[in-house]
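Hello support,

Our group uses your service weekly, and this is the first time we've seen a run hang past the timeout. The protein is YheC/YheD family protein. I'm not sure whether the cause is the sequence or the server load. Input pasted verbatim:
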Amino acid sequence: MNSRIPDPSKPVIAILTTSDRLKQFRGNRNNFRDIIRTGREMGYMVYVITVRDLKLNEQTVTGYVPSASGKLWYAIPVPLPQVIYNRIPNREEEEKAPVARKIAECLEHPEISLYNPSFFNKWNLFEWLKESKATSRHVPKTRRLRSAATLTAMLKNHESLYLKPEKGKAGKGIMRLGYRPDTLLPYRLQIQSGKKNTTYKAASVERLWARIGREKGSARYIVQQAIVLAGHHGRPFDLRVLLQKNGRGAWAVTGIGARLAGARSITTHVPRGGSIEDPSSMLEGTFGPEQAEVILKNVSTTALLVARQIERASSSMLGEMSMDLGVDEEGGVWFFEANSRPMKFDEPAIRKLSLERIFQYGNHLSRQSK
Ligand SMILES: Nc1ncnc2c1ncn2[C@@H]1O[C@H](COP(=O)(O)OP(=O)(O)O)[C@@H](O)[C@H]1O
Ligand SMILES: [Mg+2]
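Update from on-call engineer: The timeout came from a worker crash unrelated to the input. Re-ran successfully.
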């Protein structure tokens, strides 16, 4: 692996994850390897550290670095970091007491900066965005799903609804509900499982509610107005925006990708048959080149407004997030969700800048007094 002597004027950066009995540590190893390679090329000392090994009252701790081939990971002694890039892999890990305690200790530590302390909850996001006028206009009507009455009430105003777990990701557990009053079985529930999509039809809201209950189990759900998305050859697409803080500590759009839904899929996720596309060409299909450019600019502006509002309302220090935004047939921009542990973007230009920004922002953080 391409190495360079770390520049002592630059902060030591640690990628934080949790330990694993068999594999040393959890998380996406390819991603960690790319981050470390980029950091080294930029003159930073950077390593992976587990919650267990991050002992805040010691001078030297154990970190992991990849071997030259990148296939193995060595445990080596390293100095404590100044900046922690939080990559705790999932909510279950994050909610464990020792993990939560360690994050809290890092947040209080006078010489360490940790950003993105936790995952977002979908309901909180909508509450936060409704608080500001500038962002509330981009938020679909959303309520907590507690009873069948919520569905009945929302179906009065919206033809179709999305039902989503508050802690969901990658399309898991998402359902879409439609209502056709003039048919025998007016309620139509589409349930996504893997690449397939099953439809359940019900005569009454009671029957429907029972079916939804079986599907969602004890998980908390939100219910949301379905936005009729602009399409490309009959398939809806949405936009995935990566936002990061730059070397001056200001929010910036690192890149925008488009995801086109798979045939008959109710979401655009790649593992569910969706595909990666170029945002401009997706928008040009419906809106033409001039209008497409205006919409894409508006997507960036909206994403920046949303990121600032999320950060303000969450009262935590954030340095990056990805955002799923939809564009309706009139060119309106809608917020679907934001994720505080963005998955890697496969578009090469976005990927490259996203890796560099981790260090540019880390450097900025280390120059701020806490
Ligand atoms: N209200 C909505 N209207 C139209 N499409 C939606 C709506 N909510 C979600 N979707 C579609 O489903 C996808 C997944 O929803 P999202 O909220 O991002 O859940 P997940 O956390 O599972 O990714 C979105 O990217 C979008 O394509
Ligand atoms: Mg999503």
